[in-house]
Amino acid sequence: MVLFNKSANRQTRGFALATIAWILCSTSMGLPEWQIWYLDNPVLSYPSLAFVGMWGSSICHHHNNSSHPRVCHHYNYRDALVPLDIRVAQHLLLVASIVGLVGAVCAVFGLQQLYTDKLQKNEDCNPFVLSAILNAIASTFIFLAVMCNYFTVQSKEEVCFLPSFQLPLFPYAQRAGSAMRVACISAILFLLSAIIFITYSPSMESKMLPLV
Asked: The pTM is what?
């Protein structure tokens, strides 16, 4: 059937977008460049950078006669002095990753039903619609995490880390890092996948167009 082939191709594209989005979401959580701090240390004669991520921070000292040594500190749920915005973003990204993974599983189940011609017979339980909802939720949570990090960078609020991190409360200057762009791309792909699953749902198309 022409309608069946078009639907299968579109749902496959939606699944591919959702898979790439989930990979990018998981990758962004591990990247340290969510916030880039420029440290003004009068004791040192060379500039320093700090990369603040979701699960750790790194200080990079720019020596003239060496390759930039980096000292990294990792934090987890047991650390009490982790900034609130990072703690919130951690939870948002974790939930988005889990929800996105469940949405991808639903899409796989829907594709299996679609290729075995079982989806048309069970229109009341459409896994593509469930996957679309989950992908939209994942996209929303990622956008919230990105905005939370962005407003923190713009407002230049006081940030209190553990003393062992040797990071100041206020950086000399700061900007958003590349990890935010990766997360934004992930959120957009999740949203596009949700739109495809909703717009080209086979059960909806079968009510609108005749089968050939």
From this structure: 0.79
Q: Alpha-carbon distance 178 to 187, whole Å?
A: 15
Structure tokens at 53: 């991520």
CA distance 171 to 33: 15
Residue 200 CA to residue 71 CA, distance in Å, equals: 50
The three-point CA angle 160-140-51 to 5° equals: 30
CB burial of 103-137 (b: ≥16 within 10 Å; e: otherwise) equals: bbebbeebbebbeeeebbeeeeebbbbbbbbbbbb
Domain 2-202 has CATH 3.40.50.2300: no
pLDDT at residue 54 in the model: 86
| Amino acid at site 84 | L
**What whole-number distance in Å separates Cα of residue 79 and Cα of residue 77?**
6
The burial of 89, by beta-carbon neighbours within 10 Å (0-12 exposed, 13-18 middle, 19 or more buried), is given as buried
What pLDDT does 59 receive? 77
- 78: phi > 0 → left, psi -120 to 50 → alpha, else beta; which? alpha
Dihedral (CA of 80, 181, 148, 52) sign: positive
pLDDT means per 10 residues, the chain with 212 residues, are: 59 92 93 81 58 81 56 71 81 94 91 70 71 95 92 70 62 81 95 89 50 42
Of the candidates 127, 131, 151, 124, the one whose C-alpha atom is nearest the C-alpha of residue 193 is 131
- Rounded distance, CA 175 to CA 124, Å? 48
